[in-house]
Predict the structure.
Amino acid sequence: MDQLVGIFGYWAILIGTFLEGETILVIGGYAAHRGWLRLTWVMVAAFVGSSLGDQLYFFVGRRKGPAFLDRRPSWTPKVAKASELMRRHQDLIILASRFLYGLRIVIPFALGAAGVSPVRFVVLDVLGALVWAVVFALGGWYLGEAMEAFLHDLGRYEVLVLVGIAAVGGTIWLVHLRRSRKARRADGSPVAHDHHSDSGSET
């Protein structure tokens, strides 16, 4: 387990956080507690992946906003919600977008489409991504400490713990997906079935 995680762990965290996904980051923090990864590099990988993902969607929104949105009608309610939040608390939304489950891809896109200054977005988003990476990596680390105190011989149960973390993340995503689709049906919005329709990568 430790050799496998050591070889692929940082890349998995970087790719997972690029696509979204605090679950992979919590697992990374747990792996650091077990000694399979270094906590500092877990945070760095998550920070880089998260920041790159945000910048990508921001510049897609800036360059192809309406055309891109036309191909993803399921995004329309989320973009409207993100736009309403932006009108009231723009700087705070940029900083906190990584913590807003279900809107984390849409918010950078909406900010780009709204013509927000790239320099302003990058600076605030980088700060937000840094805080997010530290908070969830430490969350995984302290989860490992709590499980060790509870189970005593954590090594015997490590696979079950990892599966449990993944299962919790998957359940949260499925509940969110179901609620989002119900809300779109109630609003009369089309429910798209493409892989961008919901933040499925958040696990």
Summary: The chain has one domain: 2-202. DSSP finds seven helices and no strands in the chain. The chain has a mean pLDDT of 77. The longest helix spans residues 118-151.
